[in-house]
Automatic annotation (TrEMBL):
<feature type="signal peptide">
    <location>
        <begin position="1"/>
        <end position="17"/>
    </location>
</feature>
<dbReference type="Pfam" id="PF13385">
    <property type="entry name" value="Laminin_G_3"/>
</dbReference>
<protein>
    <recommendedName>
        <fullName>LamG-like jellyroll fold domain-containing protein</fullName>
    </recommendedName>
</protein>
<feature type="coiled-coil region">
    <location>
        <begin position="47"/>
        <end position="78"/>
    </location>
</feature>
<dbReference type="InterPro" id="IPR013320">
    <property type="entry name" value="ConA-like_dom_sf"/>
</dbReference>
<keyword id="KW-0175">Coiled coil</keyword>
<keyword id="KW-0732">Signal</keyword>
Length: 309
């Protein structure tokens, strides 16, 4: 979003400069507003600039940009509702919940994506056809600890299924199911290098609800993958640059690997994003994912095996 805005404003300045050379007057940069999470630009470049207005214009653009980014941050803070968090210096204050049952105003469906009944509840259904996926707004996850969790019921296997992420140039993060049904996570840093990329050894079972989750502890560099509340693999990241790439994209995708337009054939329910690492310690018998997101969830009765009290 930020990148787009900067590019747009630069284009405007360029237009202003060009016009001033041709003797035109007045370029105004006005009316850029933030509305419902979207940047609305009205009338950003208008007629006739005097050459000596360019300098003040540049200043104005800079101020405007600062105000906008500030308001964007405020907005994103407001998105994270109820829980205080322990993230360090993060802009994004989780948790965010997308129920994926048709009531999330922020979720947009694309192509043949739709909400459908499944096991007594309404869930997001992606039929695997090209162009069928869903979008949530993006939020600044780049310098924070994280937990991303979602219920998924795969309707077929043998192909790579995108679960949730921001995976097109310049590639930031993604959760996905690989062709042998292992649950995987990948993230790239600001230099475009993998911070991590790995998969569970357990496989997701087709036609059963499975709860998949990734936790990312940015300070320690700990990343863990959970299935049905059980921690299956963890990694310690040694790379020094652990900030995720900030792609500037305005949306994150459910069920789409955007660079290759690969989609998923599955139901999705209850996507949650926390700006902290949900706690896990076998020694202290703490497993917040299992306790709060799996065992207490109605879908746990429809999921496979490992969930027990
Ligand atoms: C250009 O801007 C100045 C200052 O805002 C204004 O007084 C003038 O009328 C404008 N000229 C045109 C042609 O719009
Ligand atoms: C800017 O846009 C808003 C919303 O569309 C409108 O209410 C307002 O009058 C506009 N202001 C100017 C200076 O054009
Ligand atoms: C959607 O999910 C939320 C949270 O579980 C629930 O409060 C709401 O009633 C559900 N709506 C529908 C239409 O299923
Ligand atoms: C992860 O899954 C594999 C395959 O089912 C299993 O052998 C392994 O014990 C699991 N790891 C943990 C830590 O539970």
């Amino acid at each position: 979003m930020k990148t787009t805005l900067v590019l747009f404003l630069s284009a405007c300045l360029y237009a202003a400069a060009t016009r001033s050379q041709t003797g035109a007057k007045n370029v105004s940069v006005d009316n850029v507003t933030l509305s419902d999470g979207k940047i609305v630009v009205q009338q950003i470049c208008t007629s006739d600039a005097a050459a000596n207005e360019i300098t003040s214009l540049k200043k104005e653009v800079k101020q405007l940009k600062e105000v906008l980014l500030q308001r964007l941050d405020e907005l994103l803070r407001r998105l994270g509702k109820d829980e205080s968090t322990s993230g360090q210096g993060d802009l994004f204050n989780g948790p965010l919940s997308f129920w994926l049952n048709g009531t999330d105003s922020q979720v947009s469906l694309r192509g043949s994506a739709r909400y459908g009944e499944q096991d007594g509840r309404t869930a997001l259904y992606l039929d695997g056809s090209s162009g069928a996926f869903a979008e949530t707004p993006s939020f600044p996850i780049y310098r924070t600890s994280l937990t991303i969790a979602v219920w998924i019921k795969m309707k077929s296997s043998g192909a790579q299924y995108a679960v949730y992420g921001d995976w097109s140039y310049p590639w930031s993060f993604r959760l996905f199911i690989d062709p042998s049904s292992h649950f995987c996570a990948q993230a790239r840093n600001t230099a475009g290098k993998d911070i991590f990329r790995f998969c569970t050894r357990d496989a997701v079972v087709v036609n059963k609800w499975t709860h998949v989750a990734m936790t990312w502890g940015r300070t320690q560099g700990t990343v863990r993958l959970f299935m049905n509340g059980e921690m299956n693999v963890s990694r310690k990241v040694t790379r020094r640059s652990k900030d995720f790439m900030n792609s500037g994209h305005s949306v994150f995708d459910i069920g789409l690997k955007r660079d290759s337009r690969t989609t998923a054939h599955a139901y999705f329910s209850d996507l949650m994003v926390f700006s902290r690492e949900l706690r896990f310690s076998p020694i202290k018998n703490v497993n917040e994912i299992k306790e709060y997101l799996v065992l207490k969830h109605p879908l746990s009765k429809d999921s496979v095996g490992t969930v027990g009290v």
